[in-house]
Design brief:
Helix content: 55-70%
Largest sheet: 6 strands, antiparallel
Structural class: alpha+beta
Number of strands: 6
Number of helices: 7
Strand order of the largest sheet: 1-6-2-3-4-5
Number of domains: 2
CATH architecture of the largest domain: Orthogonal Bundle
């Protein structure tokens, strides 16, 4: 009996220890998750962004093409409508002549002589009728040819536009996928830096532009400086937000120089300059695929729209690997 009670006591003590141990595991403090360092977050964002920005710039290029083609479609459709109307009216006119001829019958020598008094009148009438028919046919043929040309152009443009629209949609999906990753990293950034999300001091770190010039480049640089603090939004070219090529497009657009909303187009639209020749307003391109760009403001500084979650800001010109420089206008 004593042996049984001793065994029960042993079992009870074991259960008590087990429950106590379980209580420690279940109710004890959870393992602390270290807040990522700002440098590690920025490194992740830069890595992800270098995947995203080329897609964004390609999207800008394709989307710009799509908008131009859609405008051409409307223009061609507007030209086709009156041309078709002109053909229809001309056809009705010819049909009217044919109906009259059918109702009145073909002219003959007797009728012609009775009506005109001579055989010569018949020849004149027949020649006139023949000339009238040829003139009507030429008019219809000319308009119809022009109509068919516009129709063919529109059909080709419709096919091309449909293809571009598909590419536009695909790129938008790619952007959305990578953007989700950037958004998640942005949450880490806020956690690392605080709710302000400020990562590098004030957006304007000194006089902007650093070097003042009153030429078009200088005024374009001033425009870029006036946009410091605006949020980055991909595909945006103002007035409330910008991406990198949208910023430079807006800056140079303010002085009457049109640039396409695409880094590689802006590379081709400008005159090459060397680093020693740089002036305020010149464009600075980064990375071998030209997926990022900035506008030079003098003193070794640029203004650029870095990436999502950030704002238009001043930065040293050597913020990344430089591919080259271009001067618009």
């Amino acid at each position: 009996m004593k042996r049984i009670e001793a065994r029960r006591a042993t079992i009870l003590r074991s259960l008590t220890c087990a429950i106590a141990a379980a209580g420690i595991v279940l109710t004890g403090p959870a393992a602390a998750i270290a807040t990522p360092s700002p440098s590690s977050v920025e490194g992740q964002i830069d890595q992800q962004w270098n995947q995203l920005e080329p897609v964004i710039e390609q999207y800008n290029h394709v989307h710009s093409q799509l908008q131009k083609n859609q405008a051409q479609q409307k223009s061609l459709a507007a030209k086709l409508t009156p041309l078709q109307l002109e053909v229809n009216l001309a056809m009705k006119s010819v049909q009217g002549l044919a109906v009259d001829a059918y109702m009145q019958g073909a002219p003959n020598a007797v009728n012609a002589m009775i009506l005109s008094g001579s055989a010569t009148g018949l020849t004149d009438k027949l020649m006139y009728a023949n000339q009238l028919a040829r003139h009507q046919e030429q008019e219809i043929s000319g308009v119809a040819k022009l109509r068919d040309q516009y129709a063919a152009d529109k059909q080709n443009l419709d096919t091309l536009t449909a293809s571009i629209a598909g590419r536009d949609k695909d790129l938008a999906v790619q952007k959305a996928g990578i953007q989700k990753k950037i958004d998640s990293l942005q949450k880490l950034r806020v956690k690392a830096y605080g709710s302000s999300g400020e990562t590098g001091g004030p957006y304007r770190t000194g006089p902007c532009p650093v070097t003042y010039t009153n030429d078009r480049g200088g005024r374009a640089a001033q425009k870029a400086c006036s946009l410091v603090g605006k949020p980055y939004v991909f595909g945006a070219n103002g007035p409330d937000s910008y991406d990198c090529s949208g910023l430079t497009q807006a800056a140079w657009g303010s002085v009457g120089v049109h640039l396409e909303h695409y880094t590689k187009d802006q590379w081709g639209e400008g005159k090459p300059v060397s680093q020693s020749q740089l002036q305020p307003g010149d464009l600075v391109f980064y990375y071998s695929d030209l997926h990022h760009m900035a506008i030079y403001i003098g003193g070794g500084m640029v203004v650029h729209a870095p990436h999502t979650g950030d704002h238009v800001r001043m930065a040293p010109i050597d913020r990344g690997p430089i591919a080259g420089y271009r001067r618009p206008g």
